[in-house]
Amino acid sequence: MSRAALAFLLCCVLPAGTGSGALAADKPSLRVLVVENAPPMSFRDELGHLTGFSVEIARAICSEMRVNCVFDAVKQGELLPLMSQGKADIAAAGLLETPERRSRILFAGPYYRSISLWVARAGVSPGQAGVRVAVVGGSAQEAYGQKQGWPTVAVATHGELAAPLISGEAQAVLVPMITAINLQKNRAFRQLDLVTTVFQAPELSGDASFGISPYRPELQKEINAALVRIKRNGTYDRINSRFLPFRVS
Amino acid sequence: MIKAFKAVRASRAFAFLAALFVAAFGAAVVLLALDQQRVIEATSRLQEQTVPEIIRFQRLARNLEQLRQEGERIFAVSTHASRQQSVFVVTLIASHPSILEHPPAAHLARETEHFLGEVVRQASTDARRPAASYDEWQRIAARLGMLVDDVSVQGVNLANNDLNVVTSAMKLARYKLMTALLLVGVFLLVFMILVRRHLIYPLQQINLALSTLSAERPAPEFKPSTMLEIQVVEDSLREHHALLIQNDEARLGLEKLANKDGLTGLMNRRHFMQSAEVELQRAQRYRRPVTMAMADLDLFKRLNDTYGHAAGDAVLRAFAELVQDTLRQSDLVCRYGGEEFAFLFPEIGPAETEKLAERLRERCAAMQVPLPDGRSIMATVSIGLADASECPIEIALKHADEALYEAKRLGRNRVVQSDPHVPVIESEPDTHTGSLF
Fold first, then answer.
1. Which residues of A touch B98 (CB under 8 A)?
2. Complete domains list, chain A, with CATH
3. Residues of A in contact with B63 (CB under 8 A)
4. ipTM
5. CA gap A58, A93 in Å, rounded
6. Tens digit of each residue's pLDDT (9 = 90 or more) over B237-256
7. Dmax of chain B from CA atoms?
């Protein structure tokens, strides 16, 4: 009797299970790019799982949109080429909207507001002769430094920014504020006793947004709506508190 | 003409009223819809703009609170590195757009940043300095705390404006709704009054008039109605009443024709028998005297043969006129057949009747009936009387007939009383007189 009941239950449950699986498989996954080694925005935790402010915001948005998202960590410099080639749907990184970027990819609504910081020894000012500026390759800060004609030392990931200063290869660093928060956690970096000043350049502060593939313009509206929802339902603030010391929206 | 001008079709009048109501109620609904639109706009503004603004204020308050916490940490910790970390966060917060866009917060955050920066800088050289600055920090921290409260309240107050708009719109909508309901109520009341006055009441009057409509009563009177349909029915009713009277007159005419003898204009035998029966019963019920009589013109056959039937008819007509002239209004008389007449004299007994009959006989004997050829003829009548106060009409008639027979036998032109003691011969037919000629 119980065996018959079990068989009946299996008959009922199995098709449903495979059906829902087929449904989930039918729904196309979104490929999401995150920046590798950029704590606290995106990094791998002790178990090797991708996490961070941007990653979790992206996950929350995917969940709101009820889509599966597949995450890939790439270097900052690879973000734009991959996105513009349509090899990914979303770039879950705090991208400042620059004209060059705007011509290659689409932008979602802002998910936080950023400023850029100039961190250097006291008396070392931007544009000073002989000052090499450490930046992350592919970042808006790198583009700005190059545009100003400064000698720059580009590193591949945000996590490597401290090294050129510690080694003396660079005398200053121009970084987004959240990267600077992480730099401050580096003891060797702290011991350099550098002075932090807010870098006053309109193109290096303001709204930071996710990038969207130019081949998926329909995603823009959905992502923005999901962002509005998570900002209202508390999800956003919980993620903010989890990774950052203050409200960045 | 004026009445016709004033009259309106009920359907049009009520359609006009309904249109008026629809217009008024429609206007109320439109006004209500406008209020509803205001509510929708205010609530969507609350959702789309105000709620994000409130959240923004909450985040600003959170950052100000964070500033205060970082400040406390600077005074609480002993390592320079921790202090530097906190000052760094303070710098970031003080420079963040979320703080900068709120002038009082930006000002206080900048002040806090300078103060804490200075504290940390001095602490790096003199570890005792932070404690000395703690009082001042307390004042700044208190100001930060108050600003947190202000910003929180400011955020919540943003919702108040929208809610006030919603509340006032809803209140207004409530008044409008009440007005609309009042309008509906008043309209229904007016509608019912008008229906009652112009439809139900006239219909009741028509119903009353219909139930009592007869030729005996006067034509129904109606108050002038403004409703054409009612007027039409009332007019029909009046026409119907006129028709009833016409019919009644026609009926009476026919009845008279049916009850009269065609030649003499007196009652015919059938009608006499009906009327006399009623009268006789009445008299017997009240024990009143009543007398029956039979009369027959003497030698009428010979008169007919001598002068012709036209002369006979003239004599019959003249005798009928004489009878009507001589007898009382209440006496009943009919042409019983041929030249024979039957009478019923209510309220008088045989003795008085005899006087009356005698007078009739005398006047008949004195009567001269002129003929068209200039001659005139005379006729006499024999009359038999019988008391009818205690016997059925047939018996009384039979007695009278017997008395008449007796009068004929005794030589005609006389009045004979029936002898009440002579028994009635039931088997004898009542047409003895016919055998005389």
1. 113, 247-249
2. 22-113+207-243 (3.40.190.10), 116-204 (3.40.190.10)
3. 246-247
4. 0.84
5. 9
6. 899 999 999 999 999 889 88
7. 185
